[in-house]
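#struct-help
A.M.: can someone run this one for me? Single chain, 397 residues.
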Amino acid sequence: MHIEIKTPVFPESVSDATLIRWHKKAGDRVEQGDNLMDLETDKVVLEVPAPEPGVLAEIVKQEGDTVTSGEVLARLDVDADRGQARHDAAAVEGTGLEPAAAKPVPRMGPAARKAAAERGVSPAEISASGPGGRVTKEDVLRHAAEPQPVQPAAPAQPAPPEPGERPQQRVPMSRLRARVAERLVEAQRSAAMLTTFNEVDMGPVKQLRERYRERFEQAHGARLGYMSFFVKATVEALKRYPVVNASVEGSDIIYHGYFDIGIAVGSPRGLVVPVVRDADQLSFAEIEAAIADFGKRAQSGGLSIEELTGGTFTITNGGVFGSLLSTPILNPPQSAILGMHKIEDRPVVVAGQVVIRPMMYLALSYDHRIVDGREAVQYLVALKEFIEEPARLLLQT
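D.P.: on it. Structure tokens below:
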């Protein structure tokens, strides 16, 4: 009996996907749960597992094809697998021996699979530490770093380019990279985008972190970073200036009565923005844990489409890469985005005296169609005040 392997049903925000890689060939035997192929949307890479054990009888869609929800991708012959199983059982019947159990192949995300292929590591040999027995990229790297049996010498590598040659390589954009490019151009074309700047003294937050960091980590199992302070401060400032938390839909302004904060995260495929839902209802520890989890799963390709969809406001931190000042681009249809930057000791005037303080430039890009300059500046001033007096975040004053 043949069963059809179909494209998963995509959320409303995803119209189609590209089949970027087959992991099996026609005629291959597969086990239930084996990843057959990878589908790339403009948000994430999806794995399509085998629903039952069997033999991959027919491949319908090829690498590079665009597919939509519910399309037939391949056909799986489950009878062939059952017949093979009966044949194997008959072959050992009467010998007094039990059939050898096949070692299951662990589940792997695209990043882990790529790392394993690059290092010539067999997935079955890797100890999995991810949720549900999933092999992460870190598992692959740790396994590859362990001493391995000596392998035969590899074939000679191609000779380096001759002097004077000018090598180049043409690589197609991934769907994520193409979609990011499309949205950035769309934001500049469709919004009246403007950026306002301020600077914030990070000394009070730094002192608070240094004083309570160890106790915080022991109590909550999460690192106390700067981002939870900025998420909390952002929420409080958005409550005072709700239009900064709004979005544009046609000729309407949608005011959101909730705070879903997108956090820009770098990944091997490009920039992604997972969303911390209902951030106003979360503690510092819950925010830190959510962001750390997003960062880890962004590297292994484990973020879901739902986690990358929506959001009422976005925070991006170029400071982790050393950026001192930048103008972030809007994440449509949101009306504003906050840019954090590098903390740098600078001379500033405090109470008439020049002192050295750890300062950070802040940038708020906003859609001038619905956000007036006054509201943008007032939001940024409110944010600055909350960061410079972090006790107010606890007292919500």
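A.M.: thanks! The chain has three domains: 1-100, 103-142, 193-395.
D.P.: also worth noting: Residues 1-100 form a domain with the OB fold (Dihydrolipoamide Acetyltransferase, E2P) fold (CATH 2.40.50.100).
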